[in-house]
Specification:
mainly beta, Jelly Rolls, four-stranded antiparallel β-sheet
Length: 205
Amino acid sequence: MPSETEPAGELTIELAPGDYTVKSACAGGNSANLSIVQGERPPLTMPYTCDSVLERFVRHPGGPLTISATVPTGKPAAAGVTVQPNTDARASELEDLQEWSAQRLGPEKPGQHYGSTVSDTVTNYGMTALDPGTYELHFVCEGPPEVQLSVSVPSGAEVLAPVRVPCNGDLFKTSLELVSQDADFRIDPGDRTVGRYAFRLVPST
C-alpha cells in the first residue's frame, strides 16, 4: 500500500462471522497508520512503528471488512496487511469477557474504574490511580452459585467487609469510602467452579 503522497491503498474482503487476526508491517518510514472498517461501524484507527509488526484481534460480525494502511512520509514507503482466522484462544476468551461485562454492567459511567477477570479459585484484583472519596461499587458474577466479595486498601483496612453475592445475573451495588488511591478486590467462589466477574467503581455525585 502506498504512502500518503500517493493514492490510498485499500483492501476490502467479505468474511464470515468470526474472530480474526489482522497483521500489518511497514518499511521506508518511521511509522504507519492502520484503519479497519467493519460494515457501518466507525473506523478503528491505530498507529504503529515500522520496527515492529502490528497484530490486532478483530471480532467480525460478517460481511465486508476494509483495511487500509498508510505511511506518512514524503519518500517511497510501503505497508502491507494480512487477515487470517484467529488461533489465539485467549484473545477470543478476553473478547467474550469484555462483551459479557459490557452487557451485564450496562453503559459506561463517567469517571468509572473498571475491571473483569475469569478464575476457578480465589481472585485478587487491584485498582490504582483512584481519587480518595465515595464510590458506588457495581459487581456481577456468573458461574458459581455465589461468591464472597470484599474490598480493602493496601494497609489492609477493609472498605467493604466480606459479603455474600449471588451469581444470578443481578447487579450488586453498594457504596464505599476510599481513603487510598488503591483498592484491592478479593473474590472467593468457595470451590473450583470457573467464574467470570465484572466490577467497577463509579464516583458518587
